[in-house]
Amino acid sequence: xxxxxxxxxxxxxxxxxxxGAIDYAGLFPPSQLxxxxxxxxxATYRNSNYAWMxxxxxxxxxxxxxxxxxxxxxxxxxxxxRWHIAVVAGEDIVETLKQxxxxxxxxxxxAICDVLEVRANSVSKIENTLNGxxxxxxxxxxxxxxxxxxxxxxxLAERGQRAKIRTGGITPETFPAPxxxxxxxxxxxxxxxxxxxxxxxxxxIRCFRPLTYEEESVMGRMHGFLNLxxxxxxxxxxxxxxxxxxxxxxxxxxxxxxxxxxVTWRDDHVLSLWQIEQSRKTGIQSFGSCSFDEPVADLxxxxxx
Length: 305
Known about the structure:
Elements: H1 12-18, E1 22-24, H2 35-46, E2 54-60, H3 64-77, E3 83-88, H4 93-107, E4 111-119, H5 123-132, E5 138-142, H6 149-158, E6 162-166, H7 178-190, E7 195-198, E8 207-210, E9 219-222, H8 225-236, H9 241-248, E10 256-258, E11 262-265, E12 269-272, H10 273-282, E13 284-289, H11 293-301
Parallel strand pairs: 1-2, 1-13, 2-3, 3-4, 4-5, 5-6, 6-7, 7-13
Antiparallel strand pairs: 8-9, 10-11, 11-12
Helix pairs in contact: 1-10, 2-3, 7-8, 7-9, 8-9, 8-10
């Protein structure tokens, strides 16, 4: 990646669609980097040409102290604003909330844990989290596909909270079907529940690729983050589920056309700049990726960046 700060001309529609979209999760599989390497990468990305696409640094609650040991010097020398951290909660939510509060008390002026990601398999887990959530912290509750999903999304809507969907992993069976993702997105939009995604979204367009960076890695069909972000925009405009599923399954980049004020899919379906902005505001917020270089390089190859 070209890390020299300079002006990069990017279409307004692309900026609206992808601003702050990539939460950097280099500590997690399949990259699973050492803390020092992940921190160095994030510091570099913050000062790169594509810093506008970069979201939060993702770390587990149990590694917050280790994170600051590696990142403290970078954070103190950083001329930009505070580092923003997304914390993945441990099994003990009370302990996680204590760890987040302590970190923010010690370091909040320079690095702030302002997002908490929690696996929620029950309404009581949501309530227990909210009872101890620090002011200024936004929680995303990961819900599973299938039975119980609708109930949990409704519970999040009643409490003004946000959802999270797992869109992949390191084995084929961890990738939900396009229809399941469409259902999740439509239910979140109908309930006014903003959401984020995580895992399996390294590439812009749906593709068949190795699922890890290991030699002889198992291959699998990976969802594309452009597919997901644009599908959310069209879902918000009331497109029927079958068409949204077709968009999630789209594997040809040439059918997407980015203009300054709009994005077109298959010549017939258009999202205006305003519609894209609203989709990001009320729908998909970001996605976690163990790589930042890979999404940027792919977008450059496609001529989008």
